[in-house]
Each structure stands twice: as structure tokens, then as C-alpha cells.
Amino acid sequence: MHTVSLAAALAALSSTMVMADSPDPSPAVSTSLSGNGCPQGSASGSDTSFTFTRFSANAADGSTRQTLNCEAHSNVSGSGAGWQVAVSTVDAKGHVTLDPGARLDYYTTTFFSQNADVSGTTHGVITNNGATTLDTPITIHQVIPANKLVYSPCSTSSGYAGISNVNFRIALSNSNGAANAQIYNEQLSYTWRRC
């Protein structure tokens, strides 16, 4: 298995909230999805973990580039007053077939609907620099750096923290031959702080 990691180790996929300092009980997260990587009826799962059936990009010749995305829109509530939340990690699993010279770029952009001008983007890449086709499962673990964490507005007395938007995008390109990338599932984790 080919593993692409932006941190030393994978976060536990069963954990959806980072508990170093967080509201008790855990707030509710209600999520909807949009994007050409997850058209209606092609994704399922909980509010922080998703499975995809049509998140697949193809670059069939040396001049082709294809970009797909799936954006999670999460309504975070029930925290009580005085909290801010931010997406801290994005984990995704899938499969790539990359002919020599092909590459897969992947991006995570986070922002809150209440302040869409403030966003943070992380980027990673898988490149086939070899002489033979790379055909392998992949695990992507993106940790949002501290300087790119985008926090919600301070939660109100009703516990409403805002609408978090997480856009996970792949861009497949190649210089010759063919390339394919599929994303099967994605997991979001959050971190909290007092405000």
C-alpha cells in the first residue's frame, strides 16, 4: 500500500472531535455534500465520515487534466456559549493508477459561511516519477497546520457555532499515457478552543 502522509501518524478514524479542550457533551454535526465528485445519490455515511461511489477522475491522454471535488457543509451546534471549532484533519482513502509522468494533486480548503473570505488550503501530491505504471491503494492524511486553521465565530448562548465548509479536491494530470484516481471515503476531525 502506498501511503501519503502529511504527519507522522494517522489520527484514529473513530475519533471525530479532538478532545484536548472541547465542549461536553460533544456538539452535534449535521452535514450535506455537494460537488461533481459526489453528485446526489452517490455518497453515504455519517456527518463526519463519507463513502463515495462516483469520486473518480480520468486523464486518458497526455493533454488531459481533470479536477473533481466534494464539499462538506456542516452545521455545528450544541456546544454551549463561548466555543470556536475548526476542521483539524482530513483523511481519505482511494486508489490511483498513474502512468510514468502522471500526478495527482489533492487540496483541502476550509472556511465558514459566516466569513467566507477567510479560508485555509492545504495541498499534497502523488507523482509517478518511475518507468512503470503505479497501480496502488492510497491513504491521504492531511493535517491542517496551526497557521491555516479556520475557526468558527464564537458560539452563541444557543450553542450554534456556524456552518463549516470543507472542500476536498483532486486534480489529475499526466504528460503521456493515462491516469486514474478514485476516492472511496473521507473522514473529518475537529478541534475546539475557548473564545
TrEMBL record:
<dbReference type="InterPro" id="IPR025649">
    <property type="entry name" value="DUF4360"/>
</dbReference>
<feature type="signal peptide">
    <location>
        <begin position="1"/>
        <end position="20"/>
    </location>
</feature>
<dbReference type="Pfam" id="PF14273">
    <property type="entry name" value="DUF4360"/>
</dbReference>
<feature type="compositionally biased region" description="Polar residues">
    <location>
        <begin position="28"/>
        <end position="45"/>
    </location>
</feature>
<protein>
    <recommendedName>
        <fullName>Secreted protein</fullName>
    </recommendedName>
</protein>
<feature type="region of interest" description="Disordered">
    <location>
        <begin position="20"/>
        <end position="45"/>
    </location>
</feature>
<keyword id="KW-0732">Signal</keyword>
